[in-house]
Write a structure and sequence with these properties.
It is a single chain. The chain has about 220 residues and is α+β, with helices and mostly antiparallel strands. It has two domains: about 20-110, Winged helix-like DNA-binding domain superfamily/Winged helix DNA-binding domain (Arc Repressor Mutant, subunit A, Orthogonal Bundle), CATH 1.10.10; about 125-215, Orthogonal Bundle (Arc Repressor Mutant, subunit A), CATH 1.10.10.10. It is about 50% helix and about 15% strand. It has helices spanning about 5-20, 35-45, 55-65, 70-90, 110-120, 130-140, 145-150, 155-165, 190-195, 205-215; strands at about 25, 30-35, 95-100, 100-105, 145, 170-175, 180-185. The longest helix has 17 residues, at about 70-90. It is elongated and about 60 Å long. It starts with 5 loop residues before the first helix and ends with a helix.
Amino acid sequence: MTVETTDQVELSTENAENQDDSAHSSDQAGTEIDLDAILAPIEAMLVSTDRPLKAIALVDAIGAHLGLQLKDQHIADAVEMLNKQYVESGRTFTVESVSGGYRMMTRAEHAPVIAAMHRTRASTRLSKPALETLAIIAYRQPITRAELEAIRGVACGEVVRSLMERKMVKITGRAEELGRPMLYGTTRQFLDTFGLSNLKDLPKPEEFADQMEQQGI
């Protein structure tokens, strides 16, 4: 018969503790959170809104509901678990980090059929002049109206106003030049609408050129 020493017993106990279920997460203070308990609440909140939810909103609501001391990292870990489950079960959606928050979105491979559906909603689409104006503002911001019109070669006042009404464009300040003209830039609504986390996610101009060349445009 083999007799375990005190050191062996302590080592076995430590190994068992280290092999804890991956569905648990601990904060820096060592407080353990059962992530399985917050998966459904996170999912429910995300599917019930049409805009990104910041981690703090999820922390506050779920923490108050379940009486848990949650942190942003717990939410991030739970979102990672949800996405893993979605992939394993072949779901058509995923949770993405968009515009400073989390949002439930369909997977990229389903973009063509969704785009086809939205083409029927003409009233919600941007016109070609609006898209051109928005693209210039997005890539050149902050930009004055005069600079914008110099690039497009046409007056852009009405188009800029329509983009501001749609909350895609906003006034970001005034230029340090004669007359102090207003400067324009994009908004969080712009990021949300186009599924971008920040402006660094904008496609590179050369990518557009490659696509146009492939399509013979």
